[in-house]
Amino acid sequence: NYSFNLTIKPSTFLLTGFPGLEANHHWISIPFCMFYLIGLSGNCLILIIIKKTQSLHKPMYYFLSMLAMTDLGLALCTLPTTLGIFWFKIRNIEFNACLTQMYFIHILSVIESSVLLAMAFDRFIAISNPLRYSSIWTESTIIKTGLVIVSRAVISLLPIPFLLKRLTYCGDNVLSHSFCFHPDIMKLACADINVNILYGLIVILSTVGVDFVFIVLSYVLILKTVVSLMTKEKCLKALNTCVSHICAVLIFFIPMIGLSVLHRYGNNVPPMLNIVVAYIYLIVPPVLNPIIYSVKSKLIRRAILRTLWWKN
C-alpha cells in the first residue's frame, strides 16, 4: 500500500558514490584524497602567506583570502561524507545533518560567487581608476563588503532547509551524490515542490545569476578602458593581472551552470555524468584556485619561495 511508504520526515538519507563501481571505491578514493590534500594545503598556504607577507596586505589579496577561506569551507563540507563512502562504506546521513551540510554547501557557493564579483570589481577599479584605488578600497570598505557577502548568502538561503522540512517524503531515500544537494533532496518528496523550485530559482538568479552578469559587465568595461586609454604593451600588462581571476570564474561558473542544467533538464542523461559534474563543481575550484594564483602572481610565488627557503 502506497500510504505505508509515506513519511513526514525520513530519519536518514542514503548517499551515493559511484554506482556500479563500489568494489573500486578504495582505488577511486586515491585521486580524491590527493585533490582534498592539495585543496586544503594550497588554500591554507595562501592564507598563511598573505597574513605573514606585508607586501600582500592589499585589497586584491584580501579578496583572495576570502576566496581561499570559501574554498576551504567547500572542501571540508564534502570531505567527510565523500571519503566516508569510499573508505568505510558509510552511506547513511541523518536528515537534519543532511540539511545542514546542504545549507553550508549552498551558502559557500553563493559566497564564492560574490567574492568573484568583488574581485572583478577590484580589477576594474585598479585598471580604470588606479589613482583612487586605495581611497575606494579602504580596510573598512573591504570588511563591510565581506560582511555583506556573507549576510546575503546566509539570509537568502535560510528558508531552504525549512521548505524541505515541510515536505512529505516517499519510501525512496537514496540521494544521487556523496553529499546533500537541494535539488537532489527535493526530488525525493511526494508532496508539491513547486514552492521549492520557485524559491530555488529566485535565489539562484538573484545571487549567482546577478553576480555572473556583473562580472561579465565588469570585464566589458575593463576591455573598453584598456583599449581606449592604453598602449598595446600596457593593455596586455593590465589584462595579464586579470588572467587568474578569469580562470577562477570559469572553473566555478561552468560546472555550476552545467550541474544546474542537469538537475533541471537532464532526466535522460546518464547518472554518472551528473555525479562527475557535481564533483568537478565542488572539488576542482578549491584545488585549482591556489595553484592558478600561485603560478600567475609573482608576489605570491616569491612569498611562498621565501617561506619554504626560510623553513629549510
What's the short version?
The protein is mainly alpha-helical and 312 residues long. 75% of the residues lie in helices and 2% in strands.
- Ranges where pLDDT stays below 50 over 5 or more residues in a row are none
| Total domain modules | 1
Gap between N and C termini, in Å? 70 Å
Number of strands: 2
CATH architecture field: Up-down Bundle
- Main sheet attributes: strand count, strand direction, barrel closure: 2 strands, antiparallel
Strand content: under 5%
Helix/strand class: mainly alpha
Order of helices and strands: EHHEHHHHHHHHHH
Number of helices: 12
Strand order of the largest sheet: 1-2
Give the % helix: over 70%
CATH class: Mainly Alpha
Overall mean pLDDT score? Answer: 90
- Determine Rg (CA atoms, Å): 21 Å
What's the CATH superfamily, by name? Rhodopsin 7-helix transmembrane proteins
User: Any idea what the shape is?
Assistant: globular
Remind me, CATH topology? Rhopdopsin 7-helix transmembrane proteins
GO molecular function, one term: G protein-coupled receptor activity
GO biological process, one term: cellular response to lipid
Domain G-protein coupled receptors family 1 profile: 42-293
Family: Belongs to the G-protein coupled receptor 1 family.
Please provide a written account of the structure.
By secondary structure, the chain is mostly helical. It has one domain: Up-down Bundle (Rhopdopsin 7-helix transmembrane proteins), CATH 1.20.1070. It contains twelve helices and two strands. Strands 1-2 form a two-stranded antiparallel sheet. α1 packs across α12 and α3 packs antiparallel against α5. The N and C termini lie far apart (70 Å). It comes from Chelonoidis abingdonii. Keywords: Cell membrane, G-protein coupled receptor, Membrane, Olfaction, Receptor, Sensory transduction, Transducer, Transmembrane, Transmembrane helix. This is Olfactory receptor.
